[in-house]
Every structure is written in structure tokens, then in C-alpha cells.
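Colleagues,

For the teaching module next term, I've prepared a clean inverse folding example: a structure given as C-alpha cells, and then the sequence designed for it. I'd like students to try predicting residues themselves before seeing the answer, so please don't circulate the second half yet.
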């Protein structure tokens, strides 16, 4: 091709480039954990590993993984009780002598492994023990700070091993929360499109299409999402992976995190631990869908059908705290423009909360 032809294909000023990182291996299924040795052999990440778990997930899967891998690799362990700067510091110390990390647990454990491995330039493997969040494969991590949650750059796992047997045995509340995290994609997308129209924020049509399709398929399959069923775990994990890919394509969490997530992060700050991440975002999504003028009742009934909470009362959260979280949402990640950043009044916030109880 001549230089002239190249110039025609690449008009002056074109300087876009995006590096999309995705895991190399994604294994979802029955007894998938038993295939960890083959996955690791495929990746060849080194000889020594740090297994990062929570207290519960150490019992649920951590020790089984340690038993499976010891003899083949030098295994050390770290328990990440919570996700804060001192835990990250301790974890970094434990990780410094090893070649690779394995995060075995819920979203906080996986984010801990993601952040520490990224900072040390080491590969990490994600072993979710619950289908509770869509950060399983994403390259971003959510870090709680004094001023609210921040989405920090990290890297995706080199491999994901999601054992549907283990995940199906986790409390159903966790799976319902993961479904709510995916259902909230509907409003995250509307917020992103809003920011595009009002502020010229760049959007990705591919990321939007995938994020929306993921939520649609999950809602279509809602009848199959039953407690204790491996098929349900299969359906939900696939949705979480797909949602994570949409974030990887976007290069940000935008396709899966909008005003409903800002509300969720604000709620977590006001009343830590009262709601799971996806539960808070699901409730937020009902309210922001109303503000967008969309079918908020459809969001509410999908959440209800799957077994996720739709009112603060179900989580023993006072309505006034939810109003406060709606008002504070604009302080969380202010650069992320959403429907909650358009001057919501306290009166309207109170109305939104009452709407959740409407028969
Ligand atoms: N990086 C990203 O892109 C994303 C990050 N997140 C983050 O992930 C976190 C939320 O994740 P969650 O998993 O909801 O919370 P979490 O990590 O706190 O886990 C919730 C609870 O589930 C328990 N658990 C996990 N597996 C279990 C099992 N098999 N049996 C019994 N108990 C089990 C854990 O011990 C914990 O008590 C938040 O910090 C959120 O911001 C959420 C979505 C995306
Ligand atoms: O939770 C997420 C997507 O579901 C992404 O998290 P952030 O809201 O921290 O970006
Ligand atoms: Zn989320």
C-alpha cells in the first residue's frame, strides 16, 4: 500500500488507541477447581503462589486449593479480612517473595489480589467463591477510601476458575446480589449515554451493547435462577463474566457502574455492611430508572423475582439513610456524571424512596 493510500485510510488527527486486556483462560463449570493445576501449567506463572482468601472462603475453597497445589508449587497464605490500605500493605508484604497470586473469595478478596498483583507486576488468578459481583474478570478494582469508593486501575486476572459447585452452595443472597449488579447495567448505560449527550463523554457502542445484552439475557433466564442450583450458578457467572468483558472493552467500569453505583458506594459509607454491593446497586437502579423516565417497575420486579431486596426495610436500613445516600451520591467520584448529578433535591430523594414501597 502506498503512503498516499495510508493517508486516505488514516485521516490527519486520528490518534486513538486502546489496549484491551482480558484473561487468557476462563474456566466455568462443575468441579472446575480441580483443573487449576492444568490452568496454571498452561500459564506458567512461576513456582510460588500466595493464596489470598477471606476467613470464610479459606474454609469454603482456600484450603482445598492449597491441598491441590502444594507439592507442585510453594504455597503461602494470606487472609484479607477487609479491603483497606493496611490490609493491602500487609498483603503486599506477603506477596513480595512469590511469583503469582490466587484470589479465592468474594469481590473484596479478588480486588485485593488484583490491586497487589498489579502493583508488583505479577499475574493473578481469580477463583470466585460466589457469583456476587461482576469484578470477577475486570481489570479495575474498587477501593474504599475516606472520601468514598474509587475505581482504581489494575489488571485483569490471567485466568478465572469459577467452580459452579462451590458457587451454588454459597448463600443465595450472594447470587441474587450478583444478579442485581448485572441488572443495574440498564441504568449504568443510561447514565453513560446521558454523560455523552450533556458533556460529550466518549462512549463505546460495543461495550454498551454487550452490557445491555448481558442484563437482558439474565432477566430472560430469571426463572432458572434458583437457590442451590448449579445451573443457576452457571447462568449468573456467565453474565458476570460478560459484564466484566464490557468493562474491559470500555477501559472503565462505565458500562456497569452509573448513578446507582454511586448511590451504592455512598450507602456503604453511611451504613457499612448493611447491604451487599449488588443489593445496594439494584435498589439504586430502581430509583435512577425512575429518574431516567424508564420502566423502573420492570427493574423492581426482576430484582424481586431473583430474590434481591427492593426496599431498604428488607435490609433493615432506615429510609432516611437511603435519602442521605442519594444526596451524597454526587460526592462519590464527581467526575462520573450521572442522573444523580443533575441537582436532585432532598424532596425528590424522599419521593424516590417512597416509590420503592409502592404496591
Ligand atoms: N473490581 C470490580 O470491577 C468490581 C468490584 N466490586 C467490589 O466487590 C465487592 C463486593 O463483592 P461481594 O462479593 O459482594 O462482597 P464480599 O467480598 O465482601 O463478600 C461478601 C461475603 O460473602 C462471603 N462469601 C463469599 N463466598 C462465599 C461462599 N462460597 N460461602 C459463604 N460465604 C461466602 C464472604 O466471606 C463475605 O462475607 C465490593 O467491594 C465492590 O465494590 C464489585 C463489582 C465490580
Ligand atoms: O461495581 C462495578 C461494576 O458492577 C464497578 O465498580 P465501580 O463502581 O467501583 O467502578
Ligand atoms: Zn457493581
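(Answer key — instructors only)
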Amino acid at each position: 500500500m502506498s503512503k498516499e493510500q495510508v493517508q486516505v485510510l488514516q485521516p490527519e488527527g486520528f490518534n486513538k488507541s486502546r489496549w484491551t486486556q482480558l484473561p487468557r483462560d476462563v474456566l466455568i463449570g462443575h468441579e472446575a477447581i480441580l483443573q487449576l493445576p492444568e490452568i496454571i501449567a498452561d500459564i506458567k506463572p512461576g513456582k510460588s503462589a500466595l493464596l489470598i482468601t477471606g476467613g470464610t472462603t479459606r474454609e469454603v475453597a482456600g484450603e482445598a486449593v492449597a491441598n491441590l497445589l502444594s507439592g507442585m508449587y510453594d504455597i503461602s497464605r494470606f487472609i484479607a479480612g477487609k479491603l483497606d490500605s493496611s490490609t493491602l500493605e500487609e498483603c503486599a508484604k506477603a506477596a513480595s517473595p512469590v511469583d503469582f497470586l490466587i484470589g479465592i473469595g468474594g469481590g473484596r478478596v479478588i480486588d485485593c489480589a488484583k490491586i497487589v498483583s498489579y502493583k508488583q507486576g505479577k499475574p493473578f488468578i481469580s477463583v470466585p467463591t460466589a457469583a456476587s459481583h461482576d469484578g470477577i474478570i475486570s481489570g479495575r478494582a474498587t477501593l474504599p477510601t475516606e472520601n468514598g469508593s474509587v475505581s482504581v486501575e489494575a489488571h485483569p486476572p490471567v485466568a478465572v476458575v469459577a467452580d459452579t459447585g462451590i458457587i451454588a452452595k454459597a448463600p443465595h443472597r450472594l447470587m441474587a446480589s450478583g444478579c442485581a449488579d448485572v441488572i443495574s447495567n440498564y441504568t449504568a448505560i443510561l447514565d453513560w449515554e446521558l454523560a455523552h449527550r450533556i458533556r460529550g463523554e466518549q462512549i463505546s457502542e460495543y461495550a454498551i451493547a454487550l452490557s445491555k445484552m448481558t442484563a437482558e439475557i439474565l432477566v430472560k433466564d430469571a426463572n432458572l435462577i434458583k437457590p442451590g442450583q448449579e445451573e443457576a450458578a452457571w447462568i449468573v457467572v456467565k453474565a458476570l463474566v460478560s459484564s466484566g468483558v464490557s468493562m474491559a472493552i470500555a477501559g472503565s467500569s462505565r458500562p456497569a457502574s452509573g448513578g446507582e453505583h454511586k448511590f451504592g458506594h455512598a450507602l456503604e459509607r453511611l451504613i457499612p455492611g448493611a447491604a451487599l454491593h449488588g443489593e445496594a446497586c439494584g435498589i439504586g437502579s430502581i430509583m435512577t430508572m425512575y429518574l431516567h423516565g424508564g420502566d423502573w417497575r420492570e427493574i423492581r420486579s426482576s430484582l424481586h423475582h431473583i430474590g434481591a431486596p427492593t426496599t431498604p426495610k428488607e435490609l433493615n436500613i432506615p429510609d432516611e439513610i437511603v435519602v442521605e445516600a442519594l444526596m451524597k451520591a454526587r460526592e462519590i467520584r464527581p467526575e462520573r456524571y450521572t442522573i444523580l448529578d443533575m441537582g436532585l433535591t432532598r424532596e425528590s430523594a424522599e419521593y424516590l424512596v417512597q416509590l420503592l414501597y409502592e404496591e
